[in-house]
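User: Quick sanity check before I run a bigger batch. Here is a single chain. Can you write out its predicted 3D structure?
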Amino acid sequence: MKKFNRCVLILGLLPAMFFLLISFNLAQSLKTPALPGGLKAYRGDRYFQVIPRIVPADSAITVRIISPFEKFPKPGYRYRFRYTPVGRYALQTGWKEAVAEESIPEDNVFEITRYFEGEQEHIIRIEEVDSENRVRQVGTFHLYSLKPDLFALRPYKGDFHLHSFRSDGHESPAYVAGACRRIGLDFAALTDHSNYAASLEAINAFKDLPVDLRLFPGEEIHPPENPVHFVSFGARESITDLIQRDEIAYRKEVQAIMDKLKSVSGGVDKYQYASSVWTFQKIREKGGLGIFAHPYWRPGNANFISYALVDYIIEKRIFDALELISGFGWSELQEVDVNNLQVNKYLEARARGLKLPVVGVSDSHGCEDSDQFGRYYTIVFSPTLELKDLIDSIKNERSVAVETPGGELPRAYGPFRLVNYAHFLLRYVFPLHDEMCFEEGRLMIEYAGGNQSVLERLQLLQGQVRKYYETVWAKETK
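Assistant: Done. Predicted structure follows.
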C-alpha cells in the first residue's frame, strides 16, 4: 500500500516537475544571447554609458554614468554609490570597505570622482532609495586603471591562422576576410597551406574600400620532409615559393645550418631542426612574424611532431611566437586537449625563465560550420594596427591568446598582468566592439559577392570603433 501511495505521489508531482523543467529551460533561453565569438554584453553596458571606463592609474578621474532610457533624479528618491577596488589596492586612499556615499544625478547623469589607485579593476554600484528606505540597485559598473605603458596602448583582436578554399577551407578568400570582421576582429591574415597568393587575393578584394579591418599577407609553410607547421604573418614574400623555385638552394642552405650544429638533443632529427631554423629566419628576413603552429597536434595515434623536436624548438626559441591556443573543435578537444598541453608547456618554460611571446588562432577551415571560428584569437596590445607595431608588440610579450571553447567562458592566457586586463576587456569592452564590427563584416561579405551598392553604408560605418574607444579611454592627463 505504501509503495502504491508513493507511486501515486510521484505521478501527481510529474506535471509540476515538468512545468519547473520547462520554466528552467525557458529562463535559460531568455538569457542575453551571445555574440558570434561567445561574448555577451551585460545589462549595465547596454542600459547605461560609462565615460570613461579605462583610466590612468593613480589619478583622480571624474566618471560620468549616463542613463539614456531612465530619468534621474526622480522626485522623492535619493541616490548613493558604493565603490570597490577589486584588487583591494588602496595604499593612498586607505579604502577598507564599500561604504555608501551620496550621489546627486543631474539630467540623467551620475558624476562620480574617485582616485583610481594602482593597476586593477574597479566597481561602482549605484543604489536608489525611496522614502521608506527601500533600496533598488540601479546598476553595477566596471572600470579599469592602467599604468602609463599599458594605458598608451590599445587592444586589437586578430587571427593569424585561417584557411580558404585556395587550400582546404570552405569559402573564398574575400568571404573569409569579411567574416573575420563580422566576428569582431580588427586584423587578420589568411594563411592557406603553401599558398601566399590567397592572402593577397583577400587583401585586394577590399583594397581602398572604407573598411576598418586590416588584412595582412600570410601562409602556412610546409618545407619538404619537415613535420613542423609554420605560420608566416606579414612577410613581404612567400617562403613556400622561395623553396619551390629552387629547392636545391634551399637544401644547400639547410645543410649549411646542419654543418654548423655541434649537436642536438637526443631524439631530435637534425635536418628537421635545421629546416625549422631556416624557415623562421626567412620569415624574419622578409619582414614577417614566424609562428610555431600547434606543436601538440595529434591527428592520429601519435603527435605529428616528435616531443623531442618540440622541446628543442621551444628551448632554443627559434620562433617569434608560440601558437599557445590553437583552434580545435569541441569534439576534437574531447579526444586530446591540445591547448591544455600547450598552455602547461608554456607555463613550464616560463618558470625556467624563457621568454615566450604567444598568440591564439582559430586555424579555421570554414566560417559558417565551425565552432572555433571567432572563438580562438589573439589580443595584441599595440600603439597602432600597423604591421611593425603589431609584430614588435607580440615579440615584446604584449599579447594574450584567447579561447572560448563551445562558445562559453572566454579565457585568456599569457603574462598575468595582461590576462587580468584582458579578462576585463572580454566582459566590458569587447562585446559592444564586436557588435559594431558585425554589420561592417556582413556588408563586406555582400560586397565580396558582387553587391557594390553597400559601399555607401560601409562609408557610414567606418571609424565607429575608433569613436567608441574615444569614450572608453580617458583623455591623457598631464
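The first strand starts at residue 49 and ends at 51.

User: Great, the batch can go ahead then.
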